[in-house]
Specification:
Elements: H1 3-9, E1 10-17, H2 23-34, H3 42-47, H4 58-63, E2 71-76, E3 79-84, H5 94-99, E4 105-111, H6 118-130, E5 134-139, H7 148-159, E6 162-165, E7 167-170, E8 178-181, E9 186-189, E10 200-202, H8 219-234, H9 240-244, E11 248-253, H10 262-272, E12 296-304, E13 313-321, E14 323-325, E15 328-332, E16 337-341, E17 344-347, E18 352-354, E19 357-359, E20 363-368, E21 377-379, E22 397-403, H11 409-421, E23 426-430, E24 436-440, H12 443-457, E25 461-468, E26 470-473, E27 488-492, E28 498-502, H13 505-514
Parallel strand pairs: 1-3, 1-4, 4-5, 5-11, 6-11
Antiparallel strand pairs: 2-3, 7-8, 8-9, 9-10, 12-13, 12-21, 13-20, 14-19, 15-16, 15-21, 17-18, 17-20, 22-24, 22-25, 23-24, 23-27, 26-28, 27-28
Helix pairs in contact: 11-12
Bound molecules: guanosine-5'-diphosphate.
Keywords: Cytoplasm, GTP-binding, Nucleotide-binding, Protein biosynthesis
GO molecular function: GTP binding; GTPase activity; translation release factor activity, codon nonspecific; translation release factor activity, codon specific
Binding site for GTP: 17-24, 85-89, 139-142
Length: 524
């Protein structure tokens, strides 16, 4: 195997979107084109419970969450695509954010009827912070949605990123004639049968289609030509470097449901999305190169109890350099412990299989019996490698928690400590009474926490919701415990740092008005 060639073929990315924008549908199209599935509806089937393969933890089955699709590796047009899932809805959790630490690019799917929605915005901000390229797919053009100009303007304004339209829709809904494709210099037609059997027709030097075709008779075509002219003159310039830096997002239009424009999008995506590149380590000036001989990688997600019979956990590793081979010995930097990797898994569309070999850019699952934590680095070779810690994210939901049975304090504390360390949940104590408060970015984290405490630590807990809060950190020097009130509960985080849990934005503003010199800080 030629490592450099293999690495160059990798495209490791996540799809970010608000629920219902069409992430699953577009994933399905990708699987169809890659030949991994033969029929649309296979991926969706999991949600409706038809998918029988999964033996993940009961809680996930109850909720119908498809963890089998956590990572999918498929061939597409000579590329090895690693698509990492970012669960949404109620399954949204810190893992969703951490997943974005393990990818080299993101695809942002937007419902053209709705525009930028809250969850898209949150996930986008994490991608932005990482400076990875972001590709936009404006979906559902088969329906009447908002004006394309308006959508692109909103994208630029709300997300504070420049956009470059790679193609432009000719109409929408029932009047959707096709795509005017700047990038490929052609039009792509939704109704080839009405246009001499042509799916594609080239644009001439004036940017028009030669010859007589039905779609050209519509005023939509002439309107599109005008818009195209406007975009060329007033819009951003295509700039590959700015795309790579995540400063400019290429925008594609289409319909995931009918598959229209998806392949055009994917073809451009695999061309422009980056192959794995160097990754910084804690040692400044000593990044790891994907083609380095020695293996290195980090753990970005731990999925517990995927198989209830074994009570095992799977640690998801992003390989950053070298080649993984089944049965190899690696070291965990944090513990300096040597571990043989002989039970690893790779994820396909609907199956899991043992991995024999994997390279930088790939994601593999390690069966874990408690050796790994989120953020751990593994490596081979003489020289220890350590990747920077994964960022922590500001939780938004909070619960008070206490053991149901006071006689079982010990198992409660042990379980709590373990789960917090693992990154499953964030822990806070109230300033004076030292009550336990747990924080999460998604409701699912609480359920998993409760489930695991009971099943793994035999500890039943009492939880009472405190609802949404805005967590803001304050330095010890600036803090006066008298600043605390019922609307900004003072707590300590796991490191002992003071943090206020504000009722709402109004309470934050009120506080800042009262103490204008005090600095409040959020995590990411
Ligand atoms: P996800 O929550 O982002 O994974 O969204 P899904 O892929 O499950 O899609 C949500 C709903 O939108 C489903 O009913 C899809 O059939 C529908 N949908 C997805 N893409 C399109 C599209 O291009 N056009 C139309 N009309 N509906 C779509």
């Amino acid at each position: 195997m030629n490592l450099a060639q293999e690495v160059a073929k990798r495209r490791t990315f996540a799809i970010i979107s608000h629920p219902d924008a069409g992430k699953t549908t577009i994933t399905e199209q990708l699987l169809l084109y890659s030949g991994a599935i033969r029929q649309a509806g296979t991926v969706k089937g999991k949600k409706s419970g038809k998918f029988a393969k999964s033996d993940w933890m009961a809680i996930e089955q109850q909720r119908g969450i498809s963890v089998t699709s956590s990572v999918m590796q498929v061939d597409y047009d000579g590329y090895q695509i690693n698509l990492v899932d970012t669960p949404g809805h109620e399954d949204f959790s810190e893992d969703t954010y951490r997943t974005l630490m393990a990818v080299d690019a993101a695809v942002m799917v937007i419902d053209s009827g709705k525009g930028i929605e809250p969850q898209t915005k949150k996930l986008f901000q994490v991608c932005r912070m990482r400076g990875i390229p972001i590709f936009t797919f404006m979906n559902k053009l088969d329906r009447d949605g908002r004006e394309p100009m308006e959508l692109v303007a909103e994208l630029e304004e709300v997300l504070d990123i420049d956009a470059y339209a790679m193609n432009w829709p000719m109409g929408m809904g029932k009047q959707f004639l096709g795509l005017y494709d700047f990038y490929n210099k052609r039009v792509e037609l939704t109704h080839p049968e009405e246009n001499g059997g042509n799916d594609f027709l080239p644009l001439n030097d004036e940017g028009e289609v030669d010859g007589e075709y039905k779609f050209k008779e519509s005023s939509i075509y002439t309107d599109t030509l005008e818009n195209a002219e406007l975009m060329r003159e007033a819009g951003n310039q295509f700039d590959e470097e700015r795309i790579a830096e995540g400063e400019l997002t290429p925008v594609f239009f289409g319909s995931a449901l009918t598959g229209f424009g998806v392949q055009t999008f994917l073809d451009a995506f695999v061309d422009f999305a980056p192959a794995p590149s160097e990754i910084e380590t804690v040692e400044e000036g000593h990044p790891v190169e994907p083609t380095d001989k020695e293996l290195s990688g980090f753990i970005f997600k731990i999925q517990a109890n995927m198989d209830p019979r074994h009570r095992d956990r799977i640690a998801f590793v992003r390989i950053c350099s070298g080649t993984f081979e089944e049965g190899m010995d690696v070291k965990v930097t944090r513990t300096n412990k040597k571990i043989k990797l002989n039970n690893t898994t790779r994820f396909m569309a609907d199956t899991r299989e043992n991995v024999k070999e994997a390279v930088a850019g790939d994601i593999i699952g390690l069966y874990d019996t408690g050796n790994f934590q989120i953020g751990d680095t593994i490596y081979t070779g003489k020289d220890a490698v350590e990747f920077p810690p994964l960022p922590q994210f500001t939780p938004e939901l909070f619960m008070k928690v206490s053991p149901k049975n006071v006689m079982k304090q010990k198992s409660f504390h042990k379980g709590m400590q373990q789960l917090v360390q693992e990154g499953a949940i964030q822990l806070y104590r109230t300033w004076h009474s030292e009550e336990y408060i747990i924080g999460a970015v998604g409701q699912l984290q609480f359920e998993v926490f409760q489930y695991r405490l009971l099943n793994e630590y035999n500890s039943e807990v009492e939880m009472s919701s405190m609802g949404n809060k805005i967590a803001r950190w304050i330095s010890e020097e600036e803090l006066d415990p008298k600043m605390s009130s019922s609307r900004n509960l003072l707590c300590r985080d796991i490191h002992g740092k003071p943090v206020f849990l504000f009722e709402n934005n109004f309470a934050v503003n009120w506080f800042q008005g009262k103490y204008p010199d005090v600095h409040l800080e959020a995590l990411l």
